[in-house]
Amino acid sequence: MKEIIKKSAAEQFNAIKNKEIKAVELLDATYERIEEVENKVESFNCLTKDIAYETAKKVDEKVEKGEELPLLAGVPLALKDNMNLVGYPTTASSKILENFISPYNATVTQKLLNNLVPIVGKANLDEFAMGSSTENSAFKKTKNPWNLNKVPGGSSGGSAAAVAALEAPLALGSDTGGSIRLPGSFCGCIGMKPTYGRVSRYGLIAFASSLDQIGPFSRTVEDAAMLLEVIAGHDMHDSTSLDAPVEQYSKNLNNDTKGLRVGIMKELLVDGISDDVRKSFEHAVEFYKSIGAEIKEISLPHIKYSIGIYYIIATAEASSNLARFDGVRYGYRAKDCKNLLEMYTKTRAEGFGDEVKRRIMLGTYALSSGYYDAYYKKAQKMRTLIKQDFDKAFEQVDVLISPTCPNTAFDFGSKTEDPLSMYLTDIATICANLAGIPGLSVPAGFDKDGMPIGLQILTPVLSESLLFNVAHKFEQANDYYKQIANP
Ligand code: GLN
Fold this sequence. Notes:
The chain is of the alpha/beta class. It has helices at residues 9-17, 23-41, 49-65, 107-114, 157-164, 181-186, 221-231, 275-290, 306-321, 340-351, 354-367, 373-396, 419-423, 430-435, 464-477, and strands at 44-47, 77-80, 119-123, 170-174, 190-193, 214-218, 261-265, 294-298, 399-403, 439-446, 452-458. The chain has an eleven-stranded mixed β-sheet with strand order 1-3-2-4-6-5-10-11-9-7-8, with helices on both faces. Helix 7 (221-231) packs antiparallel against helix 15 (464-477), helix 9 packs across helix 11 (354-367) and helix 9 (306-321) packs across helix 12 (373-396).
């Protein structure tokens, strides 16, 4: 592995700007690294070398002409395989989309290409982003770079593993109920979910549209802040994207945090948290005390219902969003069908995996006549109460903290037979999607087996600058982020 591969995205970007390395050379070194570890880690569904080299060459031409480079130009990135990159497959790790080629670019992809960020490959995920371990992928098992017998977390497991295995310093994931923060925590990197609507979802395959949000993975807070600057902003193609100015997040990392009020989310510190995770969390609390923050225990009485609410709303929206995969317009179509109805049913029976089918059935049930009021409507009302819990909490404190997950990465197969225990891994993350607020997982230590632990930080809507600022303080005072996995 070349030394440059160990550098952060910011450092790689500077090396290109200062002519210490050409973008094409950096890309060569990146693919060399991918070659070295990919057969063990299996982060990618496919590599996208043509577009990556085409982009890197443009960067070098600009440097040669003495032109200014856009932010992160030349810095390699892994794209979750549920976002469109024109001319390449977008599979969502599902058999039903195995041969689907993106007809257009997602807005995030277009923004990356505009900034000349080379996209090195499409990263594996749980099928349609449904899962917490990436084991639901129809294609491959991505391994945790810290221990190949363990899952990378999910659903953006390929993106997190790629960053942790130094296959790319940057990646994009999508977070509907923790799918960026959880794998970030399991793989020891930064995983950040922006405010709902901060980043356009145009060209992202929809799972649960009122919860989905795209966000960055990286090894440092600064890199995540820079990447969010590139991808955030209003988009006329996504009516839920927010028309609010994009701040220079990476310039606010060292803001003074004098008078900071940090809230501990009481309901998330109950039984079931592993001793090592608890210790790491106590250490984080001590850290914020030591920099003069005021620490308050905060009760959010309704977040104990988060998982139940989420699995009604998310499955209901998924059942509707996934109706479009019927063999008519996209992807897989079953063979030898006698009539249209058989074509629909066989296509869906053969094309979708078990977890996706489970969600479609649950969601269809929750929306069906007679049950709508009892389940879906009630869940929406409860969601409002959760949002109000956060509004009240943020009157008393500036940020909220909790462990990202009660446990560290688990062994393959250990939760697949029991969906409920899998669903519980998201106990701390889902509430942020329900409330629409931004959240981030920052490396906060290791358990006794050497597996990474994450600290989750949450802030009010559109206060990403504060979120990065508070995470950066913690990161810089601890050297966890400097340790790298050796798959
Ligand atoms: N693990 C959660 C689920 O299975 C969250 C997934 C996600 O955020 N995409 O639905």
